[in-house]
Amino acid sequence: MPFRRSRFPCPTFALCVLLLAVLSAGCASTGKIQQEIAGKMAVGDYPAAIAIVEEHKDGAFDGRSELLYFLELGMLLQIEGRYAESNETFERAKRIGDTLYTRSLTNEGVSLMTNDYALDYAGENFERTLIHLFSALNYVLLNEPDSALVEARQVGEYLRKLQVDSTNENAYQEDAFARYLSAMLFESGGELDSAFVDYKKAATAYRAYGTDYSVTAPETLLPNAGRVANRLGAWAWNDLRDLGADDSVREFPDGSGEIVILHYNGLAPIKGQDKYTIPFSEAWLLAGAFQAAAAGRHQNEINQAIAVSSTISGVDVVSVAFPKFIDRPYSIARMQPTADAAIEITRPELVEDIGAIARKDLADRIVRIRTKTIARAAVKYAIQKGAEVAAREAGGEYGGLISAATQITGNIARYASEQADKRSWSTLPDEIWMSSVVLPEGEHDLSVDFLNAQQVVIESRQFPGVRVLPGLRHFIIVRTVR
Amino acid sequence: MKRDSRFHSVVRSRGDCRPGTAWLRPLGLVLLVLAVGACASKPQVTRTASDEVIDVSGYWNDSDSQMVSAAMVDDSLGRPWIDDWRGATGQKPTVIVGSVRNQSSEHINTRTFTKDLERAFVNSGRVRLVASSDERSGMREERLDQLRNATIDTAKSMGKEIGADFMLIGGINSIVDAAAGTKVRFYQIELELINLESNEKVWIGQKKIKKVVTQSRFGL
């Protein structure tokens, strides 16, 4: 019997693929941890939620998911009132996000044979924007207004980069609430020109928000901009009228100050997956279906996927997994602040629908993701078939048996490794609501009720002794998850 | 013989590998290397001179801070405001460092170069420097404490502080332009010395730094 051990390298390759598949499947465990974190948040146990994140720093949140560690931790630290630590954490997240602008061709190649967990998680564009927004609020709450303005400038730079980046095809290229918040911060810092520019950008952006996310411009936006326009002059009013402003202005009485309450409500939807097992012969037909539905900008990617998958006419099945967002229900619908001495309390308004932005962001990319998924399935299938043939030849009289074993191994590997990339910033609120309370100088007791959709109060929180200084704006963040 | 035969077998087997699958072997090895390549490596530390210019990310760094302070010190001590003051009053000018606002889009610690400037003022022997408002409050607390707890001959009395003649204020501004993988970062740092009595600006220092930062979209 001839010695045939030398022919093993090719079947070994199947084992390599299996190894990668197992490794990449192991990478996908952030979802379970994020569910645990959400459970702790639901009962208001934020220290425990932080402990869970810390516990998995060198595990699920390490390596290619390192950014998620800093995002989740930064968010939780803010809610816990540990603003300085939150900012240190967000600063690390920003640097990682910047570094990951350079995409690793090696990782891209590996992802084409395993799944997208082989890629570093660089954060969605809207997540990158929100880092600056939350950091700015941290600095405001730390009473470091200059540093808050640094964040406002950074978010402006980031959004401008999104807009001039020709490779960015997503609808999300502007953030209305980030602009609105920046405008308020610039106004508080006495930079009226910058404030006015951002008020105008916010007004323009909220028009698109109406179409894309069903979020209308807050009623306070243009009257707030009017207050700045009054100080800048007639030219500014001409600009505002072009944006649809009437003559209403929100001027605060002498000796009064403003408390802006931001309500982070619910938990943003989390990514899940739809996994299909279909005959391979149908895979390229599926890619063809995407072609019919997709805009012209994706044609090249789809054509490549069809070219790869249509070269295989096997009858074997193939697994494909596509990401989707899964809503996480919550019962609180809105807040209602009260304060005895209030001069004005504006109606709470939805200023940022993060869940809607996330869903639209994924929808904008889903064609690209699906075509890549099918192309990946074709590559993995081809690799497996090559390994089976090699095993049959190497195995001599046992070739059929070894080939069958390779096939089973390959099938398991292909199925196990096929996972949609379900990574996302899970501690984000689903919505951000805003209300403005104008109060005379002094210390005031503030109360915030949280109502469900039936307008029944299901929770109340008290903020005793809130200090109001004349002409100044303060922020309070309230977080609800239930 | 058997060993030779086996070795020969290995070589031959490579030649026998089917043309359609031969490429899989190196690919498999590459994948295996990649799979285990994620193992952690030890950090490497290299000591270097503190004034060596090392740009890593393109953001404001220690080199920028040192360049700014060096330029500002040279400029401020070389200008006529010191001699003018001495000529008019017969005394050294007394300076206090006020706020240097960070109006850039980066979190920059302005204290690093204001401290360099303070050090240069004091060490030059031509300027007197008094503590800033933050520092003063601590000194006053200490004096109050001395009045309560120290002996009469060693306790320092209140009301003997030196009032500054000039205040140093300033700011850092930045402009960033970015597209694709290229960023242009422009910093303009301005410091001003203002006569506290007359509001006259006796010195304005300015330093500009421009950096082009490129980052490849793809790498290995």
Report on the architecture of this protein:
The complex is a heterodimer of chains A (482) and B (220). With 482 residues, chain A is α+β, with helices and mostly antiparallel strands. Chain A has one domain. Chain A has helices at 9-27, 30-42, 46-55, 66-79, 83-99, 105-111, 125-141, 145-164, 176-188, 192-213, 221-232, 234-242, 280-293, 299-309, 354-394, 399-417, and strands spanning 103-104, 256-265, 267-279, 317-328, 332-339, 344-345, 349-353, 431-440, 442-452, 457-468, 473-480. In chain A, the strands form 3 sheets. In chain A, strands 2, 6, 7, 8 and 11 form a 5-stranded mixed sheet that branches. In chain A, strands 5-9-10 form a 3-stranded antiparallel sheet, with no helix packed on it. In chain A, a hairpin with a 4-residue loop joins strand 9 (442-452) and strand 10. In chain A, helix 2 runs antiparallel to helix 3 and helix 10 (192-213) runs antiparallel to helix 11. Chain A starts with 8 loop residues before the first helix and ends with a strand. With 220 residues, chain B is of the alpha/beta class. Chain B has 2 domains: 2-36; 62-214, Rossmann fold, CATH 3.40.50. In chain B, 38% of the residues lie in helices and 26% in strands. Chain B contains 6 helices and 6 strands. Chain B has a 5-stranded mixed sheet, covered by helices on one side. In chain B, helix 3 runs parallel beside helix 5 (111-124). The radius of gyration of chain B is 31 Å and the shape is globular. The two termini of chain B are 45 Å apart. The interface between A and B is large, with 46 and 42 residues.
